[in-house]
Each structure stands twice: as C-alpha cells, then as structure tokens.
Write a structure and sequence with these properties.
Layout: H1 15-26, H2 45-64, H3 73-77
Bound molecules: heme C (2 copies).
Amino acid sequence: MPAPKNLKVLTPQNYMGVMFSIPAGLGVRCDFCHNMEDRASDEKPQKVTARKMMAMVKNINDTQFNGEQKVSCYTCHHGEQKPAAPPAPAGRGPGGPPAGGPPPAAPAR
Ligand code: HEC
Ligand code: HEC
C-alpha cells in the first residue's frame, strides 16, 4: 500500500482502521467515495462529505470524550447511507391527524 497523499483529517497511522469501519458503519463500499484508480482524488462529493463527517466525529470525541473513540459513523448511521429521520410524534405522521389538528386523544386504558 503506497503512502497516503491526501489526508486532511486522519493520520497515516489511523486512516485504514477508519476506512475498514465504513462499510459496517454506513453500509457502503469503498467505491461509494473513491475513484478506485486514484483513492487520493477528491472528485466524488461523497468523499468530501465523508471528510467533514470524520472531522466532526474527531471533534466530538476530542472535546466530549477525552479523545476516546466513543462516537463513530455507526453511532448515527447504524449501517445506513443516511441516518434515519426521527419518528413522527405519537399520533402524528402517516395515519395520524393532519398537522395543526387537535392533539391526539389520550390512549384508551
Ligand atoms: C464514506 C466515504 C468513504 C468510503 C466508503 C471509503 N473511504 Fe477511503 N477515504 C475517505 C476519505 C474522506 C479519505 C480522506 C481522509 C482525510 O482527508 O483524512 C479517504 C482516504 C483513503 C485513502 C488514502 C488516499 C490518499 O492517498 O490520500 C485510502 C487508501 C482509502 N481511503 C482506502 C479506502 C478503502 C480500502 C475503502 C473500503 C474499505 C475506503 N477507503 C472506503 C472516504 C471513504
Ligand atoms: C452526529 C451524527 C453523525 C455521525 C457521527 C456521522 N454522520 Fe454522516 N451523516 C449524518 C446525517 C444526519 C447525514 C444526512 C445529511 C442529509 O440528509 O443531507 C449524513 C450523511 C452522510 C453522508 C452523505 C450520504 C449521502 O447519501 O449523500 C456521508 C458520505 C456520511 N454521512 C459519512 C459519514 C462518515 C464516514 C462518518 C464517520 C466518520 C459519519 N458520516 C458520521 C450524521 C452523522
């Protein structure tokens, strides 16, 4: 493996561990972000987004968890390309009353 040429967040020591955690973290393969002929290239927007995510994760771990690797891609992504949206509040959303309608009735006991 040649030395990495275009690391802006990760280090030559840790970057491969991060790369190999991404398929499980996001459910995507290497070519989701990389031009497989030139992995140093930033031509894919997914790679540019991922770099920002890596900086965010590093920042959270450094500032909130004493530099320990507590938060990872999986923490939010749970194996999905895009993290799930929050569920609709109880009684709202599909099948519930229209937004702005009366509050949902108390559950029957
Ligand atoms: C979700 C996007 C994403 C996926 C998927 C991904 N990578 Fe990366 N990869 C990146 C980012 C972002 C960088 C640059 C990190 C930085 O700037 O510190 C990088 C850097 C690299 C580099 C260093 C390239 C250089 O010369 O600078 C290699 C090699 C690499 N990845 C291999 C892999 C392999 C192998 C896989 C699959 C197991 C993989 N990557 C999956 C986003 C990804
Ligand atoms: C704090 C929660 C959080 C963490 C941690 C996180 N992400 Fe994300 N990520 C998101 C959200 C939310 C979106 C969707 C943004 C949108 O819908 O536009 C996203 C979107 C992305 C996308 C774009 C997907 C697409 O289809 O366009 C990539 C790539 C990505 N994240 C990579 C990563 C990687 C790699 C890591 C770990 C280094 C990571 N994320 C960690 C919250 C997170």
